[in-house]
UniProtKB/TrEMBL annotation:
Zn(2+) binds at residues 120, 123, 140, 143. Residues 1-234 form the Deacetylase sirtuin-type domain. Its EC number is 2.3.1.286. Keywords: Cytoplasm, Metal-binding, NAD, Transferase, Zinc. Substrate binds at residues 57, 60. It catalyses: N(6)-succinyl-L-lysyl-[protein] + NAD(+) + H2O = 2''-O-succinyl-ADP-D-ribose + nicotinamide + L-lysyl-[protein]; N(6)-acetyl-L-lysyl-[protein] + NAD(+) + H2O = 2''-O-acetyl-ADP-D-ribose + nicotinamide + L-lysyl-[protein]. GO terms for cellular component: cytoplasm. This is NAD-dependent protein deacylase. It comes from Rhodospira trueperi. 2 residues (Tyr-57 and Arg-60) present in a large hydrophobic pocket are probably involved in substrate specificity. They are important for desuccinylation activity, but dispensable for deacetylation activity. It is found in: Cytoplasm. HAMAP family: Sirtuin_ClassIII. The gene is cobB.
Length: 234
């Protein structure tokens, strides 16, 4: 990785977990070709048919917890980078899986939430959760409300998490790296433009194919994350 003189912000998306065995959203055969996002990833979809939405996330939660889903060489390389540069590295992931956590990244923000957490619609408490939801018997560990837990994920129309912290980091960073994201979903898709507007940072995209925002990056590398990321950061 080229020499730098300031913080590094890394944005990751579903492509980084693809080689760990998790589906992306918009690749051929991806999640949005299997289900309609309006049905499962909007507050309106949840109000219309909560059981359907809970079943969608129950399936994905069970999938994530199977033994064969593990962090890959790209997650591990980003965790090593944080070991080397300490709190100079800020990892912002759009992914709700826990593969960065398992790889050892800790200066990490899940801007679209976490699959292994639930949020109580009554007291708004967030809790670790590893089993199915939606039986009507789910009880909030904090306030005791019955059947009012939802997946702690950010649906379309909801505000992503940690936006103030992200905006501050984008403004100060010397390197902005985007890994495995199609650059389709805002506000994450707009981060490279924000960094570029401030003008100081090097920007690099590592993705299987050119993303929607590829022309905004100073450097674009194409290929699988498990090859590109270790080669770039080590
Ligand atoms: C590989 C690979 C390998 C494959 N190696 N690469 C303009 C401005 C602001 C907002 C909007 C706007 N226009 C519209 C909006 C609203 C909307 C939006 O963006 N819509 C667009 C579709 C147009 N955004 C929102 O509603 C967001 N909220 C919001 O904007 O609030 C307003 C606000 C913002 C800020 C401050 C104040 C107010 C919320 C968005 C929530 C997204 N939620 C989801 C689902 C929930 C989580 C879940 O179930 O998992 O999040 S949608 C889904 O897409 C998921 C992902 O995190 C997200 C991004 O997908 P990602 O990661 O890019 O995956 P793919 O599949 O698209 O791409 C994978 C890439 O990997 C591909 O390019 C492959 O080539 C590559 N790849 N294998 C390397 N081995």
């Amino acid at each position: 990785m080229s020499a730098r003189t300031g913080p590094i912000v890394i944005l990751t998306g579903a492509g980084i977990s693809k080689e760990s065995g998790l589906d992306t959203f918009r690749c051929a055969g991806g999640i949005w070709s299997q289900v309609r996002l309006e049905d499962v990833a909007t507050p309106e979809g949840f109000m219309r048919d909560p059981d359907r939405v809970q079943a969608f996330y129950n399936d994905r939660r069970r999938g994530l917890l199977t033994d064969n889903i593990r962090p890959n060489a790209a997650h591990e390389a980003l965790a090593r980078l944080e070991c080397e540069w300490d709190d100079e590295v800020f990892l912002v992931t759009q992914n709700i899986d826990d593969l960065h956590d398992r790889a050892g990244s800790s200066n990490l923000l899940h801007m679209h939430g976490e699959l292994l957490k639930v949020r109580c619609e009554v007291c708004h408490g967030v809790h670790e959760w590893r089993t199915d939801l939606g039986t009507g018997e789910d009880t909030c560990p904090a306030c005791g409300a019955l059947g009012r837990l939802r997946p702690h994920v950010v649906w379309f129309g909801e505000i992503p998490l940690g936006m103030d912290r992200i905006a501050d980091a984008l403004e100060r960073c010397a390197l902005f790296m985007s890994v495995g994201t199609s650059g389709t979903v805002y506000p994450a898709a707009g981060f490279v433009a924000e960094v570029t507007r401030v003008g100081r940072a090097h920007t690099v995209e590592l993705n299987m194919e050119a993303s929607n925002g590829a022309s905004l990056f100073r450097e674009v590398l194409q290929g699988p994350a498990t090859e590109l990321v270790p080669a770039y950061v080590d």
